[in-house]
Amino acid sequence: MSTFVSARNPGQDKPHNQSPFHLEQPPNITYTIHSPGHSIPMSNTTQKPFTITIIGGGIGGLILAVGLLRRNVPVQIYEAAFSFTEIGLGLSIGPAAHRAMPLIDPQIQNIYDSLITTHADSPDYEGYRQTWFEIVWASGLKEGDPLMDLKALPSGQTTLRRADFLDALVGLVPADIVHFGKRLDGLFEGEEGVQLWFDDGTKVNADVKSMVKELMLEEERTKPRYSGMYGYRAVLDMKDMVDAVGEQRAKVSTMYIGHGAYAISYPIMRAQKVNVGVYILSDDEWDCDTWVRKAKREDMLLDTENMGRYVKSLVERMPDPSQWAIFEHPHISTFAKSRVAILGDAAHASTPHQGAGAGQAIEDAHVLSELLDDSCIKFAKDVVAAFKAYDEVRRPRSQRVVTSSKENAYLLCLCMDGVGDNEAKLKDTFQQHLHWLWDLDVQGQVEEAREKMAGYLES
Ligand SMILES: Cc1cc2nc3c(=O)[nH]c(=O)nc-3n(C[C@H](O)[C@H](O)[C@H](O)COP(=O)(O)OP(=O)(O)OC[C@H]3O[C@@H](n4cnc5c(N)ncnc54)[C@H](O)[C@@H]3O)c2cc1C
């Protein structure tokens, strides 16, 4: 899971023969361009004299591409996959990233808003419009009772199918700038720019790129690590959900909190389906080479035996007992090195316990597109200052999200130090975590980075 970028000055095409870097194979996520030739309205009439090359057309890469094209910054995208095969699981974007969308390009927010499911899609549930999740006790004396109705102002819970969002974003990007079947295999940065190697034997010269951390940080531990949790996942029909847990629990996004595990459900596809996940804390190491391992139904039942009747009902209806390991990336010392920078999961993949990973990729794309558009950035060499400022502003926040997402799992599993299952402390801590995440001044973040960038350009 990586997204990286590079840029090329016109006419710069000198091959290098060294390949000091090699990438590990990331998971395949693929798509097809189905909508030819698009006109993204340009906000800037003067085109930048360099091309940003984005490696990886996931959520972060595509949104950055749309933001740059709108600002008349030339872009090329190299994607490892050949066609779109994204699985249709749900995705939810929080308020800060939602506020960043129109600032990157209003079309992104229009697309998002046209695809989302909200509580108002269920008749009679308009009153939950601003609810993010109801947090409900999974078991014990208060089994099924809400701990709190956690609001996300102003939008409430908004969810969509990842594949629908990605497909619509692809539709904003001209087909002729996307190159499929190009898996980056290595890079070399010399004085004149960066050369990229793909696994089909082709090479591309570029002079700015957001690239894989393994290449930038050879001495650091950069590989994802097992976070000590695995999950079971499913998409269920709304009718089955209502049978399983009753109408209120099926139609309102719910987090079931329990000792050592938690479960989550939220409506998707105009409330016709419900995305369900059950996450288990485990002291054992992940003893498998892949991120998903086969398991038996008995394992799933054993893992959730203390989680009360609601979770039991869900688990009984989940068709696939496969276990999904939850990985996270260790904090790294920089997201940018010279003309190389990384964004999205490549920089700060987090656990999913706050639903914030894609939102962080969107915030990254917002800051990068605004900095690269700045009139101070005249030549490819200036991008070094933009990337440095991007790193300084985005790294602390996105790394804190990684930490706070993991802490959120402990909260949900009622084992956070100093909080446990204390009702008042749980309420306070949930509020603190999420308001810190959501109440960001997104444009202020850009201005802070712009100021830093101006300082680097002067020095
Ligand atoms: C179970 C789960 C639930 C989640 N739920 C949420 C949620 O509700 N809300 C939320 O905000 N986030 C959520 N996330 C996180 C979110 O999915 C990611 O943070 C987001 O997709 C990151 O986007 P990205 O563009 O950085 O990476 P990706 O979307 O992974 O895209 C990377 C792209 O790069 C390509 N690529 C990789 N390597 C190469 C290479 N060497 N050469 C060329 N191309 C390459 C890949 O094929 C892919 O297309 C969840 C994650 C998980 C696992």
TrEMBL record:
The keyword Nucleotidyltransferase does not apply. GO terms for biological process: secondary metabolite biosynthetic process. Residues 332-404 form the FAD-binding domain. Keywords: FAD, Flavoprotein, Membrane, Oxidoreductase, Transmembrane, Transmembrane helix. Residues 1-27 are annotated as: Disordered. GO terms for molecular function: FAD binding; oxidoreductase activity. InterPro entries: FAD-bd, FAD/NAD-bd_sf, FAD_monoxygenase. The chain crosses the membrane at residues 50-69. This is FAD-binding domain-containing protein. It comes from Penicillium decumbens.
